[in-house]
């Protein structure tokens, strides 16, 4: 499988951080999280990256375990300062052993982190991992790239971007091969390509039905799929593990491919399985 997320040019993870702070400001992330994170929560933040969302989560939660595959991103996280209630962990979300079973109250995954895992069967395994890591009655809150939003972005775009009062350009090239989309972004000033940042994303966007089936297929209840709370072109997917969850199903299905039956909710309609 192609690496889902890679910093490809510019100032590395620091450049990514700077650009993303301009594109998806921390205040918007904090607004998204305000109704989600509870003061007593122990949270697992999957694909924490440089910690932009993790810091906002940590300010609202008891403790946060911040998981990411990329040591570059985690090093940048550490360089920017790690709040006292945050533990950084390098690891792959597809590996069930990377987090202790039943150890967290909430799993967050912001800005499409789940979809860098491009195979639907492996995504289903990741969602089963999330259920395994959650205590009974635990919650997930996942932002997923919406396919129609990326279909509207296919091709090359040049968008103005102001960084620290200076005008730059964000160049985005979006293409797809079937279900797998590639977005190559670079931030530059005229004639000085890739000076600030460059990153490539290879991911599998989703739609309402697929996102619902993914969560329901892993045994989550009260699955809701809604437009992104900050209107960033994502779907906001939330769900709860059963109160009497024994997680047997997760163990049985660990090596299975995706088995979730497709449900057919009306677009953006909240659905409850319970
Ligand atoms: C868009 S970036 C960071 C998003 C971050 N949550 C934020 O709000 O800025 C997505 C992150 O997912 C991480 N990632 C991709 N695949 C992963 C995997 N299989 N396991 C853990 N992290 C992964 C990447 O290394 C990257 O840091």
TrEMBL record:
* Listed EC numbers: 2.1.1.163
Q: Which GO terms describe its molecular function?
A: demethylmenaquinone methyltransferase activity
Going by the record, the broad EC class of this enzyme is: transferase
The Gene Ontology biological process annotation of the record reads: methylation
Give the protein's recorded name: 2-heptaprenyl-1,4-naphthoquinone methyltransferase
The residues that cross the membrane are none
Under the heading CDD domains, the entry gives: AdoMet_MTases
Where in this chain does the record put each Methyltransferase domain?
43-138
Renumbered to this chain, region (Disordered) spans 243-274
The region annotated as signal peptide is: none
Q: Which UniProt keywords apply?
A: Methyltransferase, Transferase
Gene3D superfamilies in UniProt: Vaccinia Virus protein VP39
Q: From what superkingdom does this record's organism come?
A: Bacteria
The root-end lineage is:
Bacteria, Bacillati, Actinomycetota, Actinomycetes, Micrococcales
């Amino acid at each position: 499988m192609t690496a889902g997320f890679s910093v490809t040019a510019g100032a590395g993870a620091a450049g990514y951080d700077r650009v993303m702070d301009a594109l998806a400001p921390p205040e918007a992330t904090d607004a998204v999280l305000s109704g989600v994170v509870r003061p007593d929560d122990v949270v697992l933040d999957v694909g924490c990256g440089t910690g932009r969302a993790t810091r906002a989560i940590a300010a609202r939660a008891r403790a946060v375990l911040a998981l990411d595959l990329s040591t570059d991103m985690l090093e940048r996280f550490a360089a920017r300062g790690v709040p006292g209630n945050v533990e950084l962990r390098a690891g792959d979300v597809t590996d069930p052993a990377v987090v202790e079973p039943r150890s967290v109250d909430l799993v967050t995954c912001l800005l499409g982190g789940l979809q860098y895992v491009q195979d639907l069967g492996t995504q289903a395994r990741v969602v089963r991992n999330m259920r395994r890591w959650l205590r009974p009655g635990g919650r997930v809150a996942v932002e997923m790239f919406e396919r129609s939003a990326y279909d509207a972005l296919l091709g090359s775009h040049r968008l103005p971007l102001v960084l620290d009062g200076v005008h730059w350009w964000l160049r985005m090239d979006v293409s797809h091969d079937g279900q797998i989309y590639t977005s190559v972004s670079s931030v530059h000033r005229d004639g000085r390509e890739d000076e600030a940042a460059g990153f490539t994303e290879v991911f599998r966007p989703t739609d309402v039905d697929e996102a619902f089936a993914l969560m329901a297929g892993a045994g989550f209840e009260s699955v809701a799929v809604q437009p992104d709370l900050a209107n960033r072109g994502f779907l906001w997917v939330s769900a709860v593990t059963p109160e009497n969850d024994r997680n047997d199903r997760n163990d049985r299905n660990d090596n299975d491919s995706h088995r979730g039956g497709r449900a057919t909710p009306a677009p953006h309609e909240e659905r409850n399985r319970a």
